[in-house]
Amino acid sequence: MSYAVTSLITLFLIVISCTGFLIDAKVTITNEEDLQRGVCHGEKFKLELSLDSNTNAIQIGFEKGNYLLDCKVHPPSYSCSPIPNVKGEFVFNKTDRVLFTMYMIFNHTNHGGKHLEITINNNETVPPVLLKTCQRQFENEAYQNMTQVTIICQHPSFNLSTNGIHILDGKNTLGECRRNPVSSCSSGAKALPNGIQFTTEYRSDMQLRCELDGQDVGIQIQEQTTKQNKPNVSRSSLIDHSNRLSVISISILSLCALIHFIVHFFLFDNN
Fold this sequence. Notes:
By secondary structure, the protein is an alpha+beta fold. It has helices at residues 3-19, 32-37, 108-111, 235-270; strands at residues 27-29, 44-52, 57-61, 67-74, 77-80, 86-92, 97-105, 115-120, 124-130, 139-145, 148-154, 165-169, 172-178, 184-185, 189-192, 195-201, 208-212, 215-218, 221-223.
């Protein structure tokens, strides 16, 4: 191989190393379980990424390309240009990995159900991250009454959502309601303060779920039972009834004593 060719190859490798282009900057999400559980409105959202040590830039934004963070990495230092209430941090370990953490306050109207797009080294994209609302604030119930089932699905962030809340049976949408930007419901659905109510024909194979902005939870059907009304007997009425029994008992005893006196008087008088 000639000296000229060797020099060109060396120069090419130097350019690649300096720019970071074409370097395999593998990305791993390390808090995937937290992301699946979702975030409640007003709480702190956290995204943790494990990056290749050759990472020199990372941009994070929504689908429309609006950056939340634009970071340049120069180990062991870095700089980020965030918007308000968004923060990025890097931790450089002695290994070949770099831990990156993004923080922001979760606003359901602005963030719920949207995707974060991540770009590494200005040209390498990774699968988008869906921002889900929190699971723990769902309040769901379904009651079977003869041939019908009534389903209730509620979440505090319902009024903040632009996509609305949905009741699903498998992949099929049974009903949906929304408040933002205008109040509306599909046919047969009834809007509740924090969600939706829907009544439909019962089937034994139903797979009911409640969905809000990318987050869904299952709903178990319970059989509705009719409660038997028991007589409501007050304490005062029991006391009154007891007093009546006492009066009757005393009267009977008095009558018996009188009869005994009369019988005894006549027997002794005759003697």
